[in-house]
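Subject: Sanity check before I submit

Could someone independently write out the structure tokens for this chain? I want to compare against mine line by line before I put it in a report. The sequence has 404 residues.
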Amino acid sequence: MNAKGLKLILGADPLLGPLTGIGHYTRCLAKAFAVNAEVAELKLFAFGRFFDHSLLDQSAIQSSTEQVKQGAFSLIRRKLASSRSAVYCYEKAMPLIEAIRLTKHTDHLFHSPNFFIPKFSGQKVVTFHDLSTVLYPQFHPATRVALSNRQMDKAIRSDAHIICDSDIVAAQLIQHYGLSNSRVSRVYLAADDEFRPRVQTECLEALSLFGISYNKFFLFVSTIEPRKNILRLLDGYEKYASTTASPFPLVIVGSEGWNSSAEHQRITQLQRRGLVLYKGYLSQRYLVQLYSAATALLYPSVYEGFGLPVLEAMQSGTAVMTTLGTSMQEFAGEAASYVDAEDSDAMSYCIKRLSEDAEWRHKSELKGIELSASYSWQHCANETLAVYKKVLMGQHYATKSAGK
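---
Independent answer below. Compare away.
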């Protein structure tokens, strides 16, 4: 970093279209860097072109021309997830376009927030949020696995420094690809400030939407897909309900994901019995209320790079059930209750205890509030900036090998 400050290009393709978890990560980092005195210049780059900072304001009313452009980029992203021909065209054409546009910006550091590295001769940083397509390819469509793994291999072969969301993923990355420890940094994520404890009167809108009572329901939040372990969660929840005179309902929030027909069929069956309530994707306006009003978040995902819903629940003052030996256990520590991802009986027992043991649950809630205070997007941005400085000072080194 020179005396005038850092010149940064941030990959912005996750900002085009509805924000996913990576989109929120990108936006929060960009907003922090935009007002950081150490960052002299921040450019947003996606699909071979630069965008201005209005892209960071999701509430802004954009021009019809910009809406059309973003709609086109969203269409490209959807095609890349399902079409081999679209993937082939993207991987052939886009690097050429990117290389031309970036040629005059080699005095900048480029950070890709989602492992897609352009052809760029300047200093590079890339974020690997998880290795799910490498370690659990059965949880993704084949085209996504092929594209993601090729792009990760490309990033590994480059001289880019790699950021991971957890120590577990960093260790997996180092082991799988044979990387030097100095090539990888861990930077924890954060939850939005809107996730906070709320009293009943602050949650009435969301409670009314589902017809539920404050602190009398369980919550699951995520895209509906096999990796989230929903079928086994429903097994455990149904066992709990069968042994309880008045079971708390399970509210499920999340859009339809890949290969989720079995999950949706089971959800529908339990809906008909009045045990499960499902309305698909919900805006954050309702979500922050549900988190705070829930008895507990149930999140026994098989694998996560971080597991943001767990932190969002902790910050909301809500107890959590999640999975042993995962990144969630790494950052949640004593604030959560843990179960084996394959043990529905353990899930049933934990759900029942969460519903009946108020003192035990309250201790978990207080610990969650205490621990979550150490995570913030400002802290995430500061640690990311420290990684940039390390890279610019040449304090990271190449791989031990080019990969397996």
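---
OP: Matches mine. For the report I'm noting this point. The first strand starts at residue 6 and ends at 11.
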